[in-house]
Amino acid sequence: MRKIIVSGLAVLALAACGTTEDPTAADETAPSSGERITVTDSRGKEVVLDGPAERVAATEWNAVEHLVSLGVMPVGVSDIKGYGQWVSSEPLDDTPTDIGTRGEPSMDTLAQLDLDLVVVTDSLVEGALEQIEKDTPVIVLTGGDSADPIGAMWENVDILAEATGTEDRAAELRSDWDTKVADGRAAIAEAGADGSKVAFSDAYADSGSVSIRPFTSGSLIGGVLAELGFENAWSMEGDAVYGLAQADVEGLTNLPDDVRFWYIANSAEGDPYADQLADNAIWRNLPFVKAGTVHRFPDSIWMFGGPTSMAQLIDAAVDAVS
């Protein structure tokens, strides 16, 4: 943790007054920035910091992206290689240290980084949060909230802006976001795609079987697409945090014939729709497949990220209908 010091002006003032107070005692009580910061995290817990956090580690990639977008390069990041493969809107420089997996960071590595703050979500393994909090302040963010996915994203950004003293940058991000949404909605309307039905998903292949993950209206992507004027074609409910559901290729027969079927994949893990389902009779005979309204979005738009990842999504959606 950063050491608490007294400013040079304060020391001179004490000397001018002829005080006999032990300056060491003052050193032990004055926060480094001159003012402590109290931040309320997603648990409703008040986290007290000695000043704006500068040396920050983050376990989840949404928090990492938020920090970089606010101008704070984390000193510790979970699974740096994976972040580079899946998140492109806010790249890391070569300074962060890899702290292990997103669910189970290395306590030894964290202890060596002289951290002001660790940022996590509630996806840590049991006992990890309590162990980290023994030595370092911890802010817990939500992974998401299907009741208000965009609002949850901004709440996380604002919490980290307050903790790092970057509120002005957060205001710029919000202004840029409002402009991006308005411009995207206008471009989609101009293309005649306003009100189009969209089914967005990703998919995973395991032993030849393809599992499809629909992004319902409660997902962050679903919320952004709704802001742009699209209608979510998935009829099922998603989970309470991320708004995600489960389906298989047979379940795609329930989608409307005129749906725009959009999905995201990653070259690091392959494309189940183009690979495993290429010769699948059910897939090939779906009306939207025959109509050619299947569209793969660019790699490395982080589906659970922040406003800069979602800005990439808006650009990709505009490109898909142009």
TrEMBL record:
<keyword id="KW-0732">Signal</keyword>
<dbReference type="InterPro" id="IPR002491">
    <property type="entry name" value="ABC_transptr_periplasmic_BD"/>
</dbReference>
<dbReference type="Pfam" id="PF01497">
    <property type="entry name" value="Peripla_BP_2"/>
</dbReference>
<feature type="domain" description="Fe/B12 periplasmic-binding">
    <location>
        <begin position="55"/>
        <end position="322"/>
    </location>
</feature>
<dbReference type="InterPro" id="IPR051313">
    <property type="entry name" value="Bact_iron-sidero_bind"/>
</dbReference>
<keyword id="KW-0813">Transport</keyword>
<feature type="signal peptide">
    <location>
        <begin position="1"/>
        <end position="18"/>
    </location>
</feature>
<protein>
    <submittedName>
        <fullName>Iron-siderophore ABC transporter substrate-binding protein</fullName>
    </submittedName>
</protein>
<comment type="similarity">
    <text>Belongs to the bacterial solute-binding protein 8 family.</text>
</comment>
